[in-house]
Amino acid sequence: TKAIWLDVDPGHDDATAMMLALNLPNIRLMGISTVHGNASSHHTAMNAARCLFAFGGDELEHKVLVYPGASHPLILPAKHDPEIHGPDGLGGVEGLPSVDEPKVQALIARDEEGQVIRALEGMAGHIKRFWNDGKNNGELKEKVTIVSCGPMTNLALFISVYPELLEAVEEFVFMGGGVGLGNRSAVAEFNILCDPHAAQIVLDAPVPTVMIPLNVTHTAIFTREIHLRLLSPDFSRSNHLSGSSTPLPLPQPATPLRHTLSTLITFFSSAYVSTFGSQFASGPPLHDALTIAYVAFPELFPERKRYRVDVELSGVHTMGETVVDLYGYRDGEWNKFDDNDRQNWGREGKNCIVVQTLNVD
Ligand code: BDR
Ligand code: CA
User: Fold this and answer.
1) Which of 351, 45, 4 is nearest to 147 (CA)?
2) Are 181 and 321 in contact (CB under 8 A)?
3) Atom of ligand 1 nearest to the CA of 11
4) Angstrom distance (rounded) from CA 318 to CA 78
5) If you measure from the C-alpha of residue 150 to the centroid of ligand 2, how many angstroms do you get, rounded to a whole number?
6) Ligand 1 centroid to residue 288 C-alpha, Å
7) Given the CA of residue 285, which atom of ligand 1 is nearest to it?
């Protein structure tokens, strides 16, 4: 199993990432921190707790809690995405418990005096404990993978405040950026655009980073066929593949959880079509779910390559673009790195593994 820390801004696709992280047998989720992004930090923290309850977090052997994090980017003012996720971040999603329910509030981390434990403290505390417990003859047996599905403000703060804990981090896996592709400007992706300075700090850290860009997440489409299968457990694969072109009516939801997911996808689909047009007529991309899929099943992402990646922090038209040095223009600035070399990450070299394909078969 892989020990992970998950940072999210739920957010419809963040919710799907949480569902995977909570239910895949080879993932051990240590904790969830939340960040401003798709909605305000208050909403994203509450949404994470609502999803955690609904997706079975309460039944796990070890308790997983939500640690509310940064409400603003490091430098820029906060921006949210109500067109895609609704004003509270989980527009249109039915069947989640409400914010005021004690069972939801009980999933927000608190200290003995009842004070909320914030993201930075929660991450550091868990990772430090994991580090100390995991040491074998002074060597760490296992490290923590930090997964990011939103703007990377919490990660940047963690790197800056606790540099000594980076030794315990296996890698940062983030959904964000694009290779010549944007979704919130011609060239900038939302998570990076929200806090570009934080993203650059993560890329400069002395820890491997893995970027899952829009180019890949746009191939992970939740199609109508998959939606039908979600609602009808015995809807067979061969049926829909050989079926007629007449659209089938959606069957009745099989379980409350399937119903919740179905309403989530329905809202997300129409938000995508009304914002981006017919390019997404076949369904919305489940961006954030791919981070957990990558950690659990890296073989699903067969092509990935290490590059120098920087974030445009001052461009008039290109603020927030992830600049990926595909052709090695900057290789001369440092010794060549072997793509498999786990050393020399960060400020001075090829700093990021860019995932290039998802095997959807
Ligand atoms: C990213 O931005 C958010 O809208 C999604 O949750 C995802 O993390 C996609 O650009
Ligand atoms: Ca997100």
Assistant:
1) 4
2) no
3) 6
4) 18
5) 4
6) 7
7) 9
Q: pLDDT tens digits, residue range 13-58?
A: 999 999 999 999 999 999 999 999 999 999 999 999 999 999 986 6
Two tokens at 278? 């017919």
For this complex, say whether ipTM is above 0.90: yes
Task: Using only the alpha carbons of the chain, give its radius of gyration.
Answer: 20
Residue the block writes with tokens 């991450």: 123
User: Which residues are known to be catalytic?
Assistant: 287
Q: Whose CA is nearest to atom 10 of ligand 1?
A: 190
Contact by Cβ (8 Å): 130, 4: no
